[in-house]
Amino acid sequence: MPEVTTAMVKELREATGAGVMDAKRALEEAGGDMKRAAEILRERGIAAAAKRAGRETRQGVIEAYIHAGGRIGVLVELNCETDFVANTPEFRQLAKDIAMQIAAMNPLVVTPDERTPEMEGPDEEVVLLKQPFIRDTSKTIDDLVKEVIARTGENVRVSRFVRFELGK
C-alpha cells in the first residue's frame, strides 16, 4: 500500500473541500488512489446529507439572476441552518449556480413530489433537483446541494423559485 503524503492529502482537500483527517482516511482506504478517495468522500457526504435532511433550514439567501440581456429573470430561495453558512462564498456560489440553471433549463418544480399529472416530460426536464448541472453534466443539481451539505455540515435545501421571461 503506498504511503499517504501530506501533499496527497492537501490535493484531495482542495479538490473536495473535505477536512484533513477525512481526506487522509479516504486516501488510506483507497490505497492512495486520488479518484477513489474522492468517490469515498462523496459517498460519505451523501450519507451525511441524508442524516441532516430533517434539520430545519430557516436561514439562507434569495438570489436574483438576470439573463439574455434582461429577457429572463430568476429568483431562487436557498436555505440553510445558520446565517454563518448563508454568508459563505460556497453557499452564495451554489445559489448563483442554481439561479443560472433555472434561467437556462426552465424547470417547473423543485422536487419530484411537487409534480402534477399535467406536467409533461421526464424528471430530468421538469424537476430542478434531477436536472444535470449545465456547467458539469456529470452532476445533478441535487449532487451540488449534497456536496455543499457535506462541506458545511448543515442541511441545505432549495425552497422555491420563480422564473420570468418576457412575453410568456
Write the layout of secondary structure elements.
Blueprint: H1 6-16, H2 20-29, H3 34-52, E1 59-67, E2 72-80, H4 83-86, H5 89-105, H6 123-126, E3 132-133, E4 136-140, H7 141-152, E5 157-165
Antiparallel strand pairs: 1-2, 2-5, 3-4
Helix pairs in contact: 1-2, 1-3, 2-3, 3-7, 5-7
Can you give a write-up of this model?
By secondary structure, the chain is an alpha+beta fold. The chain folds into two domains: 6-52, Orthogonal Bundle (Helicase, Ruva Protein, domain 3); 59-165, Elongation factor Ts, dimerisation domain (Tetrahydropterin Synthase, Chain A), CATH 3.30.479. The chain contains seven helices and five strands; from the N terminus they run αααββαααββαβ. The strands form two sheets. A three-stranded antiparallel beta sheet has the order 1-2-5. A two-stranded antiparallel ribbon has the order 3-4. The longest helix has 19 residues, at 34-52. The protein is elongated, with a radius of gyration of 18 Å. The mean pLDDT is 88.
Write out the strand line-up for the largest beta sheet, numbering strands in chain order. Answer: 1-2-5
Helix-strand pattern, N to C? HHHEEHHHEEHE
Supply the number of helical segments.
Answer: 7
Q: Strand count, sense and closure of the main sheet?
A: 3 strands, antiparallel
Quickly give the structural class: alpha+beta
Number of separate strands? 5
Task: Specify Rg, calculated over alpha carbons.
Answer: 18 Å
* Beta-strand content bin: 15-25%
The CATH architecture name of the largest domain reads: 2-Layer Sandwich
What is the CATH domain class of the largest domain?
Alpha Beta
CATH topology of the largest domain: Tetrahydropterin Synthase, Chain A
pLDDT averaged over residues: 88
Helix percentage: 40-55%
Q: Gap between N and C termini, in Å?
A: 60 Å
Contiguous uncertain segments of 5+ residues: none
Shape: elongated
How many structural domains are formed by the residues?
2
Q: Spell out the CATH superfamily of the largest domain.
A: Elongation factor Ts, dimerisation domain
